[in-house]
Automatic annotation (TrEMBL):
Residues 68-256 form the ABC transmembrane type-1 domain. InterPro entries: Bact_Polyamine_Transport, MetI-like, MetI-like_sf. PANTHER family: PUTRESCINE TRANSPORT SYSTEM PERMEASE PROTEIN POTI (PTHR43848). This is ABC transporter permease. It comes from Shinella lacus. The keyword Lipoprotein does not apply. The keyword Cell membrane applies. Keywords: Cell membrane, Membrane, Transmembrane, Transmembrane helix, Transport. It comes from the Bacteria. Belongs to the binding-protein-dependent transport system permease family. CysTW subfamily.
Length: 271
């Protein structure tokens, strides 16, 4: 009893934690609330009434579907590129030793450490210098720069937990490199890659700053939302779309958390 009492958090710490969580999540709840308001032109609190009409209005807006489709395509292709490049970089850095390995690791994670506006300006300058017109693929390339980092961080951590004895045993038993990767490495790093892919998709789906510099005249869903807030036509529609974005990005992050929370054991350790 005394041990449990000593391990209990102080009341002040509980209050501070609750206040911090409220500060972070109450604005999100307000987004959900204003998706049901009957007020079209302003954010009046409390809302004068509640309605579901804005969900039907949003469903019938072709500009919403166009922006969402573009965001999904960009996020999917950026994630696929990130899975390939991030996994290869992680394998090279964690499984081999060569001159400049730590420098390469730093260069891989640098895009996500830099402010987004710096990355955006750099990409826009590079595309302009190379006379590459802004298009769907310039958005994909811009998003892939930071999606690779997310996959790399997950993959390199899991690679370092895979015992080298497993790979050596596979080779000793006659497996070639592809077979070793398919039957030994991939089952051990698969959840980390899936989690990294989910996080990369969520990060790409709601990215604004880099997209602003690389999209040209196209509008992804976050860019569409930003434009709607600046020049509002139907404010609740923006909140309905925001609610959808919250749900679409929350689910991959939640899935990534559950996939990686038990990944701290070394596969093959002690065998």
């Amino acid at each position: 009893m005394r041990s449990d009492r000593n391990n209990a958090a102080p009341l002040g710490l509980k209050i501070a934690a609750g206040a911090g969580l409220a500060f972070l999540h109450l604005p999100i709840l307000l987004i959900f609330l204003y998706a049901f308001t009957t007020e079209e032109k302003s954010y009046q609190f409390p809302p004068p009434g509640y309605t579901l009409q804005w969900f039907a209005v949003t469903w019938n807006r072709p500009d919403v579907w166009a922006a969402m489709g573009l965001s999904v395509r960009v996020a999917a292709i950026s994630t696929a590129i990130a899975l390939v490049l991030g996994t290869l970089c992680a394998a090279a850095v964690s499984q081999t030793k060569f001159f400049g390995r730590e420098t390469i690791s730093l260069l891989v994670i640098l895009p996500i450490a830099l402010p987004g506006i710096i990355t955006g300006i750099a990409l826009r300058s590079a595309f302009s210098f190379a006379e590459i017109p802004f298009s769907f693929w310039t958005i994909v390339l811009g998003h892939a720069t930071f999606c690779v980092v997310v996959v790399y961080n997950n993959a390199v951590a899991r690679f370092r937990r895979v015992s080298g004895s497993l790979i050596e045993a596979s080779m000793d038993l006659g497996a070639d490199g592809f077979q070793t990767f398919r039957y030994i490495i991939l089952p051990n790093i698969g959840t980390a890659l899936l989690a990294g892919g989910m996080l990369a998709f969520a990060l790409s789906f709601d990215e604004v700053i880099v997209t602003t510099f690389t999209a040209g005249q196209q509008s992804t869903l976050p860019i569409w939302m930003l434009e709607e807030l600046v020049r509002p036509r139907q404010r609740p529609v923006t909140n309905v779309v925001a609610m959808v974005v919250v749900l679409l990005t929350f689910l991959p992050i939640l899935g990534a958390y559950y996939l990686t929370r038990d990944g701290d054991q070394v596969a093959g350790g002690g065998k």
